[in-house]
Amino acid sequence: MKGRETFRKYKGIISFLSKMLTILPIKIRSIMWEFVVYFPGKIGVGLRYIIMSSLIKKCGNNVYIGQGVTIKNISNLSFGDNVSIHNNCYIDALGGISIGDNVSIAHNSSILSFDHTWDDKSIPIKYNPLKPSSVSIKDDVWIGCGCRIMSGVIINSRSIIAAGAVINKEVGSNQIVGGIPGRTIKKI
Prior knowledge:
CATH class: Mainly Beta
Distance between the termini: 31 Å
Strand content: 25-35%
CATH architecture: 3 Solenoid
């Protein structure tokens, strides 16, 4: 049975459990999230979905979060339907991250929604303030393995980001983008 079919079959139970979790304080749910990040199999996927959907802004149907995915500032994150984030991705939603429908993000990719500043010379760069800037990934996007999506980026619909790309500016619709920095390889 495919993920969408499994989700449809158990949607009522999943929704009920997710709503029940909201009675717990956010701190408790956040601790629970840290415990299920590495749970294997379908039970791990289900637990990650149930706990995550109680913590983020918006969570669509059939969202798959693989093992070892790190999500920081989870309350600033939104997912559409049929989203998959595969193993060992890193997502920091400090500035806000919105991911549309039918998006697949392959393993070991990162999405950052802030930049470091370095203006205050009286303190080390690592202690300078962060500058939040949202990331928007529209519908029908495939992000290959090992990609880096930087802050302020919009990836428009029906686009493919080639493996290993670093995306630091807007990606138009219907194109394949790759390289460091990312540039259009082909229109699709």
